[in-house]
Amino acid sequence: MSITFKLNQQTVEVAESNKDMPLLWYIRENEGLKGTKFGCGIGQCGACTVHMNDQAVRSCSITVSQASGTNITTIEGLATSEEQLHPVQEAWMQVDVPQCGYCQAGQIMAASAMLKRIPKPTDEDIDNQMTNICRCGTYVRVRQAIKIAADKLATEVT
Amino acid sequence: MTNILIDRRQFLKSSALAGGMLLSINLPLIKLANANKKTASDWCIYVEIKPDNSIVIASPVMDMGQHMKTTGPMILADEMDLDWELIEFAEDCPTFLNKNEKGEIGYAFSDMGTGGSHAVRRNWDYMRNAGATARQMIIDEAAAIWKVSPALLNTRASFVINPLTQQKLSYGYLAKGAAVRQIEQSRVKLKQIDQYTIMGKDTKTIDLKQIVTGKPLYGIDADYPNVLQVVIHRAPAQGAKVKSYNKAAALAVSGVLDVVELQQQNDKIGPDIEKQIVSSGVAVISESLWSAMQGKQALRTQWLADKNHENQSSELQQQNFRKLVASDTQAKQRKNDGNIDQALVDAKYVADHTYETPLFAHACMEPFNCIADIREHDATVVVGHQFPHMVAEEVENLTGVDALSVEVINKRMGGGFGRRYERDFLREAITLSKQLKRPVKVTWTREDEVERDFFAPAYVMRVRAGLDENSNVSAWHHRQAQTRGGARDDCFPSQIVKNYRTEHFESSSKIPTGPWRGPSHLQWTFAVESMTDELAYEAKQDPLAFRLDMMQPHMAHEYAGWGAEVIDSGRMAKCYESAAKMAKWGRELPKGHGLGIAGHFTFGSYAAFVIEVSVSNKNQLVLHDAWGAIDCGFAINPNHIRNQMEGGFIDGLNAALFNKVVVEQGQVINNNFHTLRWMKMKEAPKNIQVDIIQNDYPPTGVGEPPTAPAAAALANAIFAASGQRIRQLPIADSISI
């Protein structure tokens, strides 16, 4: 019996023997998708954030078997294409958020999941929903980019 | 002297790419001793111009979040008069090394190291001259084709232009011919500031798109042919040795190939002080990282404590420091201007307060990792390190392979903060690759990273400061005890307070320490700018006006400390004024709100911040907005200066509020983010407005200067809001947030 789930819209099959493997390591090691980062391994920092059925989850703290039957999206699968980035990625580029950049994929995944649920987040929403650590302290720009992304998404819908 | 020819051998190599021009730029006055002939390292190749006029630039300084990978190419490209939009950027730059007459390893061309906010300072002249030289060679080629004097010609955006005829030739067309030209150094003309077309403008991070799309830029993402994955169970307590482990259990994990012990390795860092670089440990060698991690769990390693570290405790150390600074025990004198004893007797008022800072962790977001492939006569190391020459040096020291035969592939770093100056994560991988005769990749966990950190030293700083009858600061006596290192006592109030003495107690602490973002600057500023605030309130003066008075008369003083030649009270004053103006200093504030101000000079740059906080009647702290002004000389990239001001200040606020490592019996107790609290969005200021003071001083660094004022600005704001004076970090121990 193997475990199957969708990873960036492709069906993947994982051997039962790997069922306890954290999703993070499956994504990075077995699928070679390195955009999802290892930061703490205990679900605290959010560098490994991916979407599971459109919810932001910390892939270091989810096993492959827990991902069974779900849709997983990583930073590599967020955009429609290299030319057509996700509005959150575009906003990140517009504001030029990153410093070292290591946490930013996780921040973008957390922000894009939040904006699905809360299209017009208040500062308080952003404070409560965005719990990823940025060691370089780019929080001011992350907040700006989220607001720009919210506006972009609102325009897209209308 | 002006006729030194920049000849082809020193300067250019055109054969490597068909039809292209590879510029390797080496200033003729920089002496190249024993440039390595075996590798390409007598050429430093930064720029490649292709026939279609597209250009590839490799930044000699790698990025760790300080934005130098963008700044370096901006300097070069502007002097070359390139079209920034046509440039492609190489992911990394080969590390070109040489050895001097003493056999010491250094950089063959520009300085590729980053730390001490020096990368801009040390590369400013080099990169400008490099760009201007290349530009002149391309002009000469066009002049030869058009048969006109080179002096007639201009350049703009990767084209040479003849203003008389409006003829244009692209750099791509001219590059091949230009590559074999020789020019006299006297003809290399640097631009004036008003001629810059790239510098001085907001420019975005060159690998921004790769970052936001999750491309594998970092060492942790790097692959290598036939590499073995290694995870090491490191001794959790300093000095502890392996007692036992279950090798069979680890080998039983699918994918695990081998288990080997690593010996503790110490370096002598002083006559009587050894620094543990590599801890005793057990390395699990595996086909995959995940199986290596499982293998490590299966080892169930037991440890033998080291008696030398049994009583090592950060809390006991702090208590000891408190006793020392409070005592009459003679300390080691550092500076002694005027007559401090008399000045304290004569003072109308003397404040006597003690300020404390704990051990700070680095917590680089990317856990350390290093690929080492040590072969018989040469080697390759793939790693993100702040000083790539140290990587080659480490290989030579450990294996005997000549450093100039080491290929160092330096990767983008997920944070550095001084921690990626250390050698420990190199040494393990190099040692194991040599032993196993295979390429290895060693990857750390977060717990390893915190437990085996080289922390910012802890400080207890007692300051006695006096006011004279006119409420001027007439005496300043700073007496400190610290885990290791000195004090930034060349910074203010040195020279602006006439009677000034500093002293410190030597420490025999074995708690490992290392550079932490502007080493000692934040701690020094916490004491100085907190005490300055206390004196202002005592003198019943406005804290801003009091500081501005202290900066009078405005003048440049000689600076004997590291990283600058002068310290200018006028430039510092301007930063205070600008930050205060943005914050509307003096305005009426809501109840429970307060503004705090602090400023500091770090490695040539001046920064001041004002922060607004509120403290509720339930002692709940909220950080509101902040305003920061920086004078870093000519502003090469205002966008990234602002980004550093925002992030650097927030890092300082995190240090002030949360960053405290606790060591008991030589072991870190809070080894991951569940117990080592770190600032998140919720606690950070919502807005930080930045002013960059405009001037044309040579540019200085921006990575560290914004961090230093944060703790004092925050403590001063809390006092203004609540009347609570916090003299001990972390502030979250005294107030809820």
Task: Write a brief caption for the model.
Chain A is α+β, with helices and mostly antiparallel strands and 158 residues long. Chain A has helices at 23-30, 87-95, 104-117, 123-129, 139-157, and strands spanning 2-7, 10-15, 49-52, 55-58, 71-73.
From the spread of the alpha carbons, the general shape of chain A counts as globular
Element-level helix/strand string of chain A: EEHEEEHHHH
Total tally of structural domains of chain B: 3
Tell me the strand percentage band of chain B: 15-25%
What is the CATH H-level superfamily of the largest domain in chain A? Beta-grasp domain
Helix/strand-derived category of chain B reads alpha+beta
Shape of chain B: globular
Q: What share of residues of chain B is helical?
A: 25-40%
Main sheet overview of chain A: 5 strands, mixed
CATH architecture of the largest domain in chain B: 2-Layer Sandwich
In total, the number of domains of chain A comes to 2
Radius of gyration of chain A: 15 Å
Sheet bearing the most strands of chain B, described?
7 strands, mixed
Rounded average pLDDT of chain B: 92
Estimated radius of gyration of chain B: 27 Å
Looking at the overall shape, the CATH architecture of the largest domain in chain A is Roll
**Regarding CATH, which class of the largest domain in chain B?**
Alpha Beta
Oligomer: heterodimer
